[in-house]
Specification:
Length: about 375
């Protein structure tokens, strides 16, 4: 891996998370995949690193990592287990709206549980509003000093475990996307419940659920920004999130590459290690090359964001490239390993299942193409 451009602090963070993954994630990831859960002890260990919410600002006691450092953390977590990376990443995803437009009071409210080791969740998707976020049908109606929320959210990461939620709801359905607003809703509010728990093919360590809101009353000051700013906040959140998903993809692909290298050095074919077959060695070379290309896209996107430059198109390109790349590398790794790669004895089987989600969540890769082509053809 080319580390030449990282600062001493970024290398320190990378090493810290790499050690964490080696000790606390990699040995247990298969078990968490099987049970569909991350034990509390592992969540606590992650909290104790001080990295439970990477983007939490210093003013509330958070680590306030720069974007490049955050992508480095997500690459390392993705290397260990994409399900765990998805679960731990949820705290960043749900924090961007608050970082972008939250008042000091809202920041205290939102970040306090996250810094204590509770999960947060970001809830935009609904049964009839996936790629078409403007179709959000959850409503938030002002009633005196409160808003009353009604609707159903689905496929919400860590939704069954989270203590605090960012809910995107419509305050004016006649205005479509311009009528959406963002709200902080805490677990335990009357009328707020967890519905269906998804049984997924991959990233099984993460929790994915339906959320049901029936006349949920929240104080009006829980609205982030102004009425009608929800779509803008959600889209900016997804721009950041896409860099993090791409970083996880790079980590997962790197894990598949490492498994492949280990395998081809040991597996004997015609009396020689498989690695001595040029077709196999070239495949390894190609895998390493696209992984490095993906990493450079991620780092460049992070640098653009840290420099407050526009990076929406770049984030979409990065997610598109890295998530397809991870799937292809996982497939190549499985091909190299033959039957063994297809069994649960190999770690590559899990990486292949886990990687499949990357081109779907936080905007499908068709939606990334919509963003990229839209910016080029306008
Ligand atoms: C494991 C998991 C975790 C998730 N976590 C969260 C979360 O934490 N919070 C949250 O809010 N959501 C979450 N999601 C939801 C996820 O973001 C959506 O599933 C995703 O945005 C796609 O929406 P959809 O599933 O409704 O697909 P659809 O929008 O129905 O798309 C179906 C197909 O049509 C294509 N398509 C749709 N519209 C267009 C278009 N305009 N142009 C070209 N092609 C198009 C899509 O690319 C796709 O191939 C999660 C989903 C999963 C599976």
């Amino acid at each position: 891996m080319l580390n030449g451009m990282l600062s001493p602090n970024q290398i320190k963070v990378q090493q810290k998370v790499r050690n964490f993954v080696k000790e606390h994630i990699k040995p247990y990831a298969r078990e968490w995949d099987a049970i569909g859960d991350i034990p509390d002890s592992a969540v606590k260990a992650w909290r104790d690193t001080g990295l439970f919410c990477l983007v939490a600002p210093k003013e509330v006691g958070g680590p306030e990592l720069d974007t490049l450092s955050a992508t480095i953390v997500l690459e390392e977590l993705g290397y260990g287990c994409l399900g765990t990376a998805t679960a731990f990443g949820a705290n960043n995803l749900c924090s961007y709206p608050v970082l972008l437009a939250g008042t000091p009071e809202q920041k205290q409210k939102h970040f306090a549980p996250l810094l204590e080791g509770e999960f947060g969740a970001f809830a935009l998707t609904e049964p009839c509003a996936g790629s078409d976020a403007g179709a959000v049908a959850t409503t938030a109606v002002r009633d005196g000093a409160e808003y009353v929320l009604n609707g159903t959210k689905c496929y919400i990461t860590e939704g069954g475990l989270a203590a605090t939620f960012i809910i995107i709801a419509s305050t004016d359905r006649s205005k479509g996307t311009k009528g959406l607003s963002a709200f902080i809703v805490e677990r335990g509010r009357s009328g707020f419940s967890v519905g269906k728990v998804e049984d997924k093919m991959g990233i099984r360590a993460s929790n994915t659920v339906e959320l049901v809101l029936k006349n949920v009353r929240i104080p009006a000051w829980h609205m982030i920004g102004k009425e009608g700013e929800g779509m803008k906040l959600a889209m900016s959140t997804l721009d950041s999130g896409r860099l993090m998903v791409a970083a996880q993809a790079v980590g997962a692909a790197r894990a598949a590459l490492d498994e492949s290298i280990e395998f081809v050095k040991k597996r004997i074919d015609n009396g020689k290690p498989l690695a001595s077959q040029q077709s196999v060695a070239f495949k390894i070379a190609d895998m390493a090359t696209v992984i490095e290309a993906g990493r450079q896209l991620v780092h460049q996107g992070a640098r653009l964001k840290d420099a407050h430059q526009p990076y929406s198109k770049h984030a979409a390109m990065t997610k598109l490239f890295c998530t397809d790349m991870a799937m292809q590398v996982a497939r190549d790794a499985m091909d190299i390993m033959g039957a063994y790669g297809y069994t649960k004895d190999s770690y590559v089987e899990k990486i292949w299942r886990d990687s499949r989600i990357l081109s779907i969540y936080e905007g499908t890769n068709e939606i990334q193409r919509v963003v990229i082509s839209g910016s080029l053809l306008r």
